[in-house]
Amino acid sequence: MTPRMKIEIVTLFPDYFDSVISQSIIARGQNKRLFEIRIIDLREYTLDKHRTADDKPFGGGGGMVLKVEPLAACLRDLGYERTSREGEKIILTSAAGKTFTQPIAVTCSLCTRLTVICGHYLGVDERLLSLFEIDEVSIGDYVLTGGEPAAAVILDAVTRLIPGVLGNFESALTDSHVEIGLGPPVYTRPEEYKDLRVPDELLSGNHREIERFRRLQALKKTYNNRPELLERLDLDDSDKEYLKTLEKKDNENK
Ligand code: ADE
Known about the structure:
Bound molecules: adenine
Number of helices: 10
CATH architecture of the largest domain: 3-Layer(aba) Sandwich
Number of domains: 2
CATH class of the largest domain: Alpha Beta
Strand order of the largest sheet: 2-1-6-5-8
Order of helices and strands: EHHEEEHEHEEHEHHEEHHH
Number of strands: 10
CATH topology of the largest domain: Alpha/beta knot
């Protein structure tokens, strides 16, 4: 049986991924042939005996730039041409990329093939982006020493969305960012710990009450931690009413 999705990771540090791909959910997904991961050593595509993959930037300044030839040779060897085929996507990890979000993870999870190039040093020679259709992606507004941790994050966020990977797919549907901004707070046993009780609503057994409680609590978390997300949400009148009460409380405490 061919796997539903092929994932390739192009890196100067293939060993980095040993533990990443043996991690339980990713290993299980591979064993079930839901996807297949290939780690590709970029140095295999270098042209000189020192296996040089980087060089100094034209125009001066510190740092090194990943050379275009090995990367282009690697992508061509993988069968990529100027435009990608439907269902195929190339991502380059870069601090200068578009921010990786849950909708991008969903788009990637629907691909039949995803190739992630781990950027390094100052970045890659920009001409690579003229030769292939490549999406530059950043996992957040901070600078990593290399793209490997970013590729591991992308791999995790994408593979868990492939049907059959998670034991309980329903949990992926209630993830933060999927429905109503951030996810609601969650609790498990015991019902009481050092005078701290699990909210009565969650113990009520009343499904509608639980859903309503979770929605408002998720709104509250979004309001407190990521207020800029509120504008994008589809809020009904009672959500708006609830947010007004939060704002009012905030103003009273100022
Ligand atoms: N490489 C360096 N910093 C990065 C970031 N924030 N996201 C993706 N790749 C990176």
